[in-house]
Amino acid sequence: MSFTPIQMNFFARFCCIILTVCAIQAQAQTTALLSADSTQVETGNPFVLRITLSETKIPDTLDFGPWQGKVNPKNILSETGWIRNGNSLVREITIIFFDADTFTLAPLTLAFKEADSIQTNPLELQVYATPAPEDLNDMAPIKDISPEPVFWTDYLPLLLSILGALAVLGLLFWWYSRAKKRTMFSRTLGLPPHELALKKLAVLSQKYLWNTGAVKAHCAELTFILREYLEKRYQVPALECTSQELLTHLNPTDFPEELMADLEMVLIQTDLVKFAKAIPPDSFHAYSMDVAINLVNKTIPMPVEAPAAENHTQA
Description:
This protein has helices spanning 5-28, 156-189, 193-207, 215-234, 243-250, 260-276, 282-298, and strands at 32-36, 40-42, 47-53, 61-63, 76-79, 83-85, 88-95, 101-105, 109-112, 115-119, 123-128. By secondary structure, the protein is an alpha+beta fold. Among the domains are: 28-130, Immunoglobulins (Immunoglobulin-like); 190-298. A hairpin with a 2-residue loop joins strand 9 and strand 10. The longest helix is centred in the middle third of the chain and has 34 residues, at 156-189. The radius of gyration is 51 Å and the shape is rod-shaped.
């Protein structure tokens, strides 16, 4: 049977079309490759399995069921998502084995909703035991340690420790200072009110605060000494009330009437200095100090004598 040239030309074109379609279909077919950096791994040494998918569309499911009995789920240390790498997708799985064995990982199934499922290739692995001490001579020499870069945060724990130690020392010093002050002032806290007030007035007179321009500080300390004494001596809230209220509280007590005018004058003048920034004459400082000392001396409580015991004779 012979063919005409036209039939031969038509048949050749038909064959080309068929071959072209087959090549396109072969190129369009999606493949999934299961690979590893090395198919030999030591027990207890993590290694990475890699699934490379010649497709830019992410599969809907990846079934690890075929690996049951070969790979313990607890031995899968980590698993990445699908990472695009050019025209393909890559997924990495970090696995560790603790038993020496040679086995084949079964193909995994990747399913697509709008396409057929595909499978990876099987992969043969050899897990060998860690060399015994007598075999260490045959091993490669140990590599030098690669130093990591040093950052300031590496010294943060040491810095915090030093700051903590300084804070503790500061607290101990503060506590010791307060304890020392309490011990130093304990000698005066036990004194009667008039003795304590006279001691404080003597110390205040030696400071000469008004000569250094600290008139307000001098008046504040003077009135505090007076109010503290009056509160302890007459049981009135002298430290908590105004000057006029203090005078009102003293009226019902046995405070000497002849001292009331001088006390009122000192309280009014010192209030003007403290709250109105008034500047009293220089003579006021000596006058106010004399009034305070005289007030304390004239209000010292008299000692109470015990009644004499009476001898009763029995008739």
